[in-house]
Amino acid sequence: MSDFAGMEDLLQDFLTEAEDLLSDVDNKLVDLERSPGDQGLLNDIFRGFHTIKGGAGFLNATELVTLCHLTESLFDKLRNGELAVTSEIMDAILAATAGVRVMFNRLSQGTLPHPADPAIITVLKEVLSGGSAVVPAIPLVASETPQIVPAEQGNAPNWEELHSAVSTALVPTSVKREMPPPAGTSVLPAVTEAEIIIKNALGRRVTDVPGVTGPIGRRAEERQRDTSIRVDTARLDQVLNLSGEIGLTKNRLNALRSDILNGQSDTETLHALDVAVSQLDLLVSDLQNAVMKTRMQPIGRLFQKYPRIARDLARSLGKDVELVLIGEETEIDKTMIEDLSDPIIHLIRNAVDHGVEGAQERRFAGKPEKADVRLEARQEGDHIVILVADDGHGMNAEKLRAKAVEKGLISDEEANTMDERQSFNLVFLPGFSLASRVSDVSGRGVGMDVVRTNIQKLNGSIDIHSVQGKGTTFIISLPLTLAILPVLLVKLGDQPFAVPLSMVREILPIDPNEVKEVGGRATMVVRGEVLPILPLSKMLGWEQENTPEYGVLMQMAELSFILAVDTFAGREDAVIKSLDDFRPKGVAGVTTLSNGQIVLILDMKELLGAAGDQRGVPRALLIKSAEGKARSELKEPVDA
């Protein structure tokens, strides 16, 4: 039973405000270490702890009150000049904020926090009494790293039945058809007819729904996500105003409909109908944009945790590093913020650990002893670009190729054909690492693979620019929102499929006279580049009735290939409907076209991986040759 029965809303409000306050305190502590005499920072941090203590007292979280009171007392002495800011005192304070965060986690589970680590309490009391602070090793705030969940294994889906199912008239997703539960069982969430049909097409039992025990019915523990969002009231007002205008236009259309049904079809009435429909189209587009903006949040809310992480890691490595934040006001889709957290942590940790040199090495290179790591966000067109850059020693393409050959990730022949960009991208291979030893920060060679995997899940891309002796920049490009995905509609026979438009470079005809076999595989030369031709029908396991007439030149990170299809059905802005609970391999989701037809959105990365495993796609194309081996051999926790 919760320790906060009847106070859940109050507890949630407290946690939301207090976590923001604590993140702000962490950043100001990092600033204070650089400017120990800044009275404004001292006062702000004091007020932060005082506010958290007050809320904790109202919730009767006594242990949290005790920890905050000791830290608040320490800051009172600092701002009154009774104590001076030192690295040891800063370690003690940061250990206290880490303890507060642990207590927040307990509160979020509805239970009162346990007492703080006795070592932290002892150190704080020692400092307050005028003694020296000897702080035990402080774990990094965000030392946890993401785990890649392997794709669900099982029998291949019955594609023909699946597409027949989604192409027929289904119950709309907004309409739920409840299935009667068996006697003696608890009532489960309603199941749509679409889910039942698609599950049957995948060869699964109708009863295999979330919450039911069975081969796929076991519910895995989901990582808790913050589903709340803060919206500027001005944006809500805009949505409300547009809704009102749409209501007025609807009334106008109803009146015109009645006139037309009553035989009034003169030119003036038809013109009025055309104007009303055009106005409705404009208003709906404006409403859609306004609703999308309510999902947008300043990326600064994501960035604010990183200065503390960079500071802790740099101190543990004996380096002097400053993390510079730029573009914190840039807005990004709220659903992306949590998924971006782990990749950016990896990149910052790698920049501090591998990218920048130690003080002595920087002096020899004529650089300032303090290294700079820059975290920047900006909007470019319909994409958000995030940069993680350092001024360290940069990457050596030749060394990267040699290491990949040594580990058996690529062959000597493949290494000799790689340009600098392809060589840099080797760091994303599973099992690749330049670290000479395994530590709690790096060395196992799976962290950067996690980065690219998570970015690609967001329909984004990551690229690397590096200059030896000058530094390295990782460039992440993401769509503005995940709610709407521009897609290209391709066809196999009469069946349409959707592929992300961001991966499409161009569309070209496939001339049989230009198709050449290289090593038993069909290829085409496009502007001097030899590219393999992958028929979509073979990737899906369909029998190919006709020779494909068109190709889509696809670009996925460093991979380029021609997707062979029968024809095209145009471009659409797809509103994605997720199929996470019963998603077949190679399907990212479904969307409804303007004509009402339901179409599958293909996950090209999964399909391409399956093609590489089963149908002989060139190893140099996929650069995935060691992935299965690395996944099976590296059964250690994922690290940076």
Task: Using brief descriptors, characterize the structure shown.
43% helix, six-stranded mixed sheet, alpha+beta, disordered C terminus, 18% strand, five-stranded mixed sheet, 18 strands, single chain, 640 residues
Per-chain topology:
Layout: H1 8-34, H2 39-58, H3 62-79, H4 87-108, H5 118-128, H6 159-167, H7 193-201, H8 233-261, H9 267-294, E1 296-298, H10 300-303, H11 306-317, E2 321-326, E3 331-333, H12 334-355, H13 359-364, E4 371-380, E5 383-390, H14 397-406, H15 412-416, H16 420-424, H17 447-457, E6 461-467, E7 471-479, E8 484-492, E9 495-500, E10 504-509, E11 516-518, E12 521-526, E13 529-535, H18 536-540, E14 550-556, E15 559-565, E16 567-575, E17 587-592, E18 598-602, H19 604-614, H20 619-622, H21 627-633
Parallel strand pairs: 2-4, 9-18, 13-15
Antiparallel strand pairs: 1-3, 4-5, 5-7, 6-7, 8-9, 8-16, 10-14, 11-12, 12-13, 14-15, 17-18
Helix pairs in contact: 1-2, 1-4, 1-11, 2-3, 3-4, 3-5, 4-5, 6-7, 8-9, 11-12, 12-17
Describe the overall structure.
It contains 21 helices and 18 strands. The strands form 4 sheets. The protein has a 6-stranded mixed beta sheet. It has a 5-stranded mixed beta sheet with strand order 2-4-5-7-6. Strands 16-8-9-18-17 form a 5-stranded mixed beta sheet.
**pLDDT < 50 stretches:** 137-155, 166-223, 612-640
Strand content: 15-25%
Largest sheet: 6 strands, mixed
General shape: flat
Q: Can you count the beta strands?
A: 18
Arithmetic mean of pLDDT: 76
Number of helices: 21
Task: Give the distance, in angstroms, between the N- and C-terminal Cα atoms.
Answer: 38 Å
Q: What's the gyration radius in Å?
A: 29 Å
Q: How much helicity do the residues have? A: 40-55%
- Give me the secondary-structure category: alpha+beta
Spatial sequence of strands, sheet with the most strands: 10-14-15-13-12-11
